[in-house]
Amino acid sequence: MASPRAIVLPSKFYVVKDGIVVKAIILVVTIVIIAVSYSCRANSPERMTDSLSSSAVQIAEADQILGEAYKNKRSDIQVQGQGRVEKILADDNKGSRHQRFILRLSSGQTLLVAHNIDLAPRIAGLQVGDSVGFYGEYEWNQRGGVVHWTHRDPAGRHAHGWLAHQGRRYQ
User: I want to staple 152 with a disulfide (CB 3.0 to 4.6 A). Which of 85, 92, 156, 160 is the partner?
Assistant: First the structure.
């Protein structure tokens, strides 16, 4: 039987026994057990419910902020939210080109989204009923308001905005 011998490594804690690095294997097994345990806990039904509840609360809070902005005729408010596409409008091609569509929030309020497609990619394949997340600037109007600045500001003077659709972010 071969006797254990030390490996020439920066650490003196690795011992080779029958060609196997014993402590390294123990370390790897321990890391795998911890990772599997964490993964099971992270994907538990309780945690998934907490995450869904948190998302629902965030959407409700965003809807409330947008509702108050509309009621009080406020503009120039940076907002984040989510809605369902109610109607797809023709692009606005006067000046900077904008992809336009109407979102309905869970509160019932509607928003016109004016997404600058000279500065950010168009949402390809957008359809009525699709869910779209947004981060941009709210401007009041009588029909519910407009969200624009859903793109990066090339001059760096305005908050960068975005739209999210089917797992992709457009900015």
Answer: 160
